[in-house]
Specification:
mainly alpha; 5 helices; 76% helix; elongated
Length: 148
């Protein structure tokens, strides 16, 4: 217990969140390596496979964003009564949901970042960024030519 009567927390209090956050670290590192390979052209993917994978990633990202959006409700004091046990339970649950880096919301945000990196990797591997850049350049050239 801390001097003010509040628990300082233990490893068991944050084990799940810390474990989830720690598990994402090597995944993020691996995605960065694959993204680099895709950027150098060492990794290629067909457009058809990329579109299928991008659709799945979009579904996952949407689900993560919905959970994060709903998580705002978790970062509010819970009212279980006016006792030491009620206050402690409220503080622990709130901390697990939206507290430090190992809490549910920050871990979901980190997972969303990994999904975004995967999307960039897939687009790069399939050459979709280059195609989009060429298309945008063509539109810009047409617009400039039409304005003359």
């Amino acid at each position: 217990m801390a001097g003010n009567g509040e628990s300082t927390g233990t490893a068991a209090d944050t084990a799940f969140g810390a474990g989830a956050a720690a598990s994402l670290t090597p995944v993020a590192r691996d995605v960065a390596v694959v993204r680099e390979r895709a950027g150098t052209g060492a990794l290629r993917m067909s457009e058809e496979a990329a579109h299928d994978l991008l659709a799945e990633l979009a579904t996952l990202r949407a689900a993560v964003h919905r959970m994060i959006g709903r998580g705002g409700d978790l970062d509010t004091p819970l009212h279980f009564g006016d006792s030491f046990v009620a206050h402690t339970l409220s503080r622990k649950l709130r901390g697990a949901a939206a507290g430090g880096a190992g809490a549910a919301i920050p871990v979901l945000e980190q997972f969303g970042d990994v999904l975004t990196d995967l999307e960039v990797t897939v687009r790069t591997a399939a050459g979709l960024y280059q195609a989009a850049e060429c298309e945008a350049g063509d539109r810009l050239a047409r617009a400039a030519g039409g304005a003359r």
